[in-house]
Amino acid sequence: MPQTRPAMDQIAAATQAPAPPKALSLEERLTLINTEMTARLDEAAVAYEVNTAHIPIEPVDLADVVTGPGVASPAPLPDLYPTPVAALLQRAHHRLLTGGWCKDVLVDEDGARCMLGAIRIEARGDSGLQAAAAAALLDAIRRTFGDHVDSVPSFNDAHGTGRIPLRMVDRAAHLADARGL
Hints:
Elements lengths: L4 H11 L10 H27 L9 H4 L18 H16 L15 H9 L3 H19 L6 H6 L5 H17 L2
C-alpha cells in the first residue's frame, strides 16, 4: 500500500501558524494613534453635548468682560518702606511699572524712564536722597551680576527689556530697607 503523504502535507500546511504581522513604521503608528485619539475626542465631544444640553445658557456681553488698558486705572502704590531710600526706590519701581521703562535716555518721547530717570523724578529734587538710592541700586546690581558692572546707566542700557532692570530696582528697595537706609 502506498503512503499518502500528500494528505499529510495538506494538513500540515493548513495548521501552520500565520506569519506574524509586519511591524508598523513610526509614521504608521502615529497615524493609527492620531485616528484613535480623534475618534475618542469625537466621542467625548458628543458625550459633553449630551450631558450639558439641559443647562440653560445666558449670552455674555463681551464689553462686560473684556477691558482695554485705557479703561483700567493704574495699580495703587503699595505700602511704602519706612526708610527714605527704600521708599524712594519703591516709588521708582512703581513708576517704571506704570509709566514704562526705556534705555539710552532718562525719559523717552512716550514718558517712559530709565532706572536713574525714575529715581530722579521720585527724589523730587533731593540730590542726597537720589545719590543714596543710586548707590544702593548699584550695590544691588553688583551683588547679583558682579563687580564688572560700571554704573547704573550702563547696566540699564545693556538690557533689551525692562524685566531685569525693574527687578533690580525692587531688590535695591529691599536691600535699602534691610540696611535702614
